[in-house]
Amino acid sequence: MAKKINKIAVLTSGGDAPGMNAAIRAVVRSCSYYNLECVGVYRGYQGLIEGDFEDLTARSVRNIINKGGTFLKSSRSEEFKTEEGRAKAHKKLTDAGVDALVVIGGDGTFTGGLYFNKEFDFPIVGIPATIDNDINGTDYTLGYDTALNTVVEAIDKIRDTASSHNRLFLIEVMGRDAGDIALNSGIGAGAEEILLPEEDQGIQRMMDSLEKSKKSGKTSSIIVVAEGEKSGKNIFQLAEFISQSHKEYDIRVSVLGHIQRGGSPSCFDRVLASKLGVGAVEALTDGKTNIMVGVHHQKVVHVPLETALKEDREFDQELRRVANITSV
Ligand code: F6P
């Protein structure tokens, strides 16, 4: 029989994402609601190793639902990748009387959690938080919706300049391995072409589509490029390549960078964070471990951490088709 859970620790790890604070708040308040103790761990797994803990009450998390980033701070800990590091972390947790851990983050965070659970049989539940949306088994990760809105707002502004000056803009968005931000923001902001990590369609396709745009009477163009796209050229090299064969284009490059990760979370992300935070605590008190709480068709679902980490996420071909049709 699973050990009764009296005290839960919560941490955020990996790249920050809007909605992390709202998720911490939901975890802390669920603990309070169910009369459990809650401990915040600062600086992710590194803080776990160093015992950088603070007791949290329902009032500790006031006024943070609307804040970007994570007040617990985040890190990518090299030491936690070692057995010794994880053993130190386990000792700090047991010394503090913690029975279970909620980890909020992306694939690196879940991988660390999985190792930790395997080695110490310590109850772990993950909450998916990354602007990339690249976690298997959940329709959405925390921060993705906010990031999309930030990106679309930025591209809308760039469009004003593109159309005023008849320019071609190449805009780089985040997404090392996943094209969710690029594909969705590209459709939402009306891009002529979208380059994604999931497909290597070659540079020729981009050139053809620019040619088509010109013939169809377009005077300005926007190409959204995911940072992990597979042409083998970075965005500046792509711009150079186009300008060599098409001197007539007035080309500019814009790399959106980390503005995509910050900012106040959207209402969607705040509600998602609240659902998942409550779901995580309830899963632990129900004796569940080694799972991620995700969302599918609006409902909270439990997904084994191993499944969440699988890399065979299906690429949305239908959305690609929509992008092709609406950009003619
Ligand atoms: O994991 C989210 C992400 O935004 C990726 O899309 C991007 O490649 C990476 O983080 C950048 O991370 P860092 O903040 O370490 O530069």
Structural class by helix and strand composition: alpha/beta
Helical fraction: 40-55%
How would you characterize the largest beta sheet?
7 strands, mixed
Count of discrete alpha- or pi-helical segments spanning 4 or more residues: 11
Compressed to H and E, one letter per element, the order equals EHEHEHEHEHEHEHEHEHEEHH
Question: What descriptive keywords fit this protein?
Answer:
11 helices; 2 domains; four-stranded parallel beta sheet; monosaccharide binding; seven-stranded mixed beta sheet; Rossmann fold; alpha/beta; magnesium; 42% helix; cytoplasm; binds 6-O-phosphono-beta-D-fructofuranose; 328 residues; 11 strands; ATP_PFK
Mind explaining what this structure looks like?
One of its GO terms (molecular function) is identical protein binding. It comes from Salegentibacter mishustinae. It catalyses: beta-D-fructose 6-phosphate + ATP = beta-D-fructose 1,6-bisphosphate + ADP + H(+). Its EC number is 2.7.1.11. By secondary structure, this protein is an alpha/beta fold. The protein is 42% helix and 18% strand. It has eleven helices and eleven strands. A seven-stranded mixed beta sheet has the order 3-2-1-4-5-10-11, sandwiched between helices. A four-stranded parallel beta sheet has the order 7-8-6-9, with helices on both faces. Helix 1 packs across helix 9 and helix 6 packs parallel to helix 11. The longest helix is centred in the middle third of the chain and has 22 residues. It is elongated, with a radius of gyration of 22 Å. The model has no long low-confidence stretch (mean pLDDT 95). The structure holds 6-O-phosphono-beta-D-fructofuranose. 6-O-phosphono-beta-D-fructofuranose binds next to loops.
